[in-house]
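Predict the 3D structure for this chain.
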Amino acid sequence: MQTIQAHGAVIPAIGLGTWELSGRSCSRIVEQAIRLGYRHIDTAQVYENEREVGEGVRGSGIKRDEVFITTKIWTTHFAPLDLIRSVRESLARLRMDHVDLVLLHWPNPHVALHETLRGLGRVREAGLARHVGLSNFTVALIEQAMAMTPVPLVCNQIEYHPFLSQDKVLAACRHFGLAVMAYSPIARGRIKNDATLGRIAARYGKTPAQVCLRWLVQQGAAAIPRTSRIERLSENIAIEDFALSDADMAEIFALGSPAGRLTNYAFSPVWD
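Done. Predicted structure below.
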């Protein structure tokens, strides 16, 4: 499987997102995904499914060190000591002694960023996570974080799909050598009715979802599509047997605009 590399991290390009997955269905999807060849599983404290994700990883029969596990710290745990404690609690739920990547799930303006980054650095130094990074950070916040961080940050996980232009954040990530990890990479299924994506997909004998994921990987981004359907798992990972042309890539880029954002909360930062 193709990988994305940044500051020593080697991240499988296609992973499984687990937002809104819960209970036995979550552990079953995770287990099946790993058996099909997925080597990257994404969870978060706020998803309340870390326990089930851990069960799925163990149930797959694949060695723990062969699977890249990401979890994300919720904003209420950004004070340094609370941050470290919350990561230990995540590991207890996962029944793992470390994860591969810990991210700050959202910016939190109510806790000084340098304090939060200090806690994140301690998480890495204590061996609780092999790598650390950001999620939902804007250009200005990326610049601040990179100036303050005591340890290397390896990625920024952001909403990114053909309908959302992210040019400014992508440029900032490239400048600082941060990997881009795309969540909602198929726009929560909205891509299936798009004529441009449908036409390109038909040309390659692929689905619009596969075209979206290929478009992301060809940019050098990782993607974590979520599915609750086992039959979709094989589809989402089967993108290495074709390549989009430059013209295809340009057509898909042209679909994007700032208005295409799907994830926007009252606590979200002011987006670029």
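The first helix runs from residue 23 to 36.
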